[in-house]
Design brief:
260 residues, mainly alpha, 10 helices
Length: 260
């Protein structure tokens, strides 16, 4: 059982440092460990990311820091909440297409590998790619809707996709993007988890959920501390290293889900 606490803690620590929420690490690692079926794994990942983002965003707001851009972040978060509901329905629709849930896991893993590879490519070349800032509530809500839908379907919270969007469309630096990414993740995962609870949560072990949530909160606290100590270049290197690891695990998971 200690394994699940460590997964939640280490993933959330790295997620809080980089602003990727931890879910993009937790989901493929749980797929590797298989503590339950695909639906249960997505639920456990979502709950852990929700606890982690609640702590991180709550601490940031209560401390009086202005790193969360409410004018931009709130419309994005509202859109992400609606997208979270849409993504949950999309997941249910895809799950209904296959009798074998392993096929659903393979689809998620392949999509995650593809999205993460695109994110990695952008991160490496972002200094040569000019930002295209947008303004206004409607574009922010629509962008948030797309982010929430994708993250909810993949069961990852939002992660690296959020950072790329915040860099490209809003010109945020690494640290500002990290905090605002967690703010968006909070809303999308809250909507996703509530939807799952209201429609019937998949079978899972409560001990596993409690340990992962505690690990998520502890990792959020550790990650916030380390984020203040590390330089932006170190954060970017950690982010790139995590993306390479996630791509590798996701491709392996996709192969294993499809293996006879």
């Amino acid at each position: 059982m200690l394994t699940f606490f460590l997964v939640g803690f280490l993933a959330s620590t790295a997620g809080a440092i980089c602003g990727i929420g931890g879910g993009v690490i937790i989901k493929p690692v749980l797929d590797l460990l298989r503590p339950g079926n695909v639906s249960a794994i997505s639920f456990l990942s979502g709950c852990t990311v929700l606890a982690m983002s609640c702590y991180s965003v709550g601490h940031s707001l209560l401390s009086g820091k202005k790193s969360v851009s409410l004018d931009t972040g709130t419309p994005l978060a509202i859109g992400a909440a609606a997208g979270g509901l849409l993504g949950s329905r999309l997941f249910s629709a895809v799950r209904g297409m296959f009798e074998d849930q392993n096929r659903v896991g393979a689809v998620q893993a392949a999509c995650l590998a593809l999205v993460t590879a695109g994110t990695l490519l952008y991160t490496i070349k972002k200094d040569r790619i000019p930002a295209h800032p947008v303004s206004g509530r409607t574009p922010c809500v629509l962008i948030g809707l797309a982010l929430g839908c994708m993250s909810s379907f993949l069961g990852i919270g939002g992660g690296p996709i959020n950072l790329v969007v915040l860099y490209f469309f809003f010109g945020m630096d690494t640290r500002t993007a990290a905090v605002n990414s967690l703010y968006i993740i909070l809303f999308s995962q809250l909507a996703n988890v509530l939807t799952v609870l209201l429609t019937g949560a998949p079978p899972f072990r409560w001990q596993t959920l409690v340990l992962m949530v505690l690990g998520g909160i502890g990792g959020a606290a550790a990650g916030r501390y380390l984020n203040r100590k590390l330089e932006d270049r170190a954060v970017d290197r950690l982010f790139i290293g995590l993306m390479v690891l996630i791509i590798g695990i996701s491709l392996f998971n996709a192969w294993r889900f499809l293996a006879p």
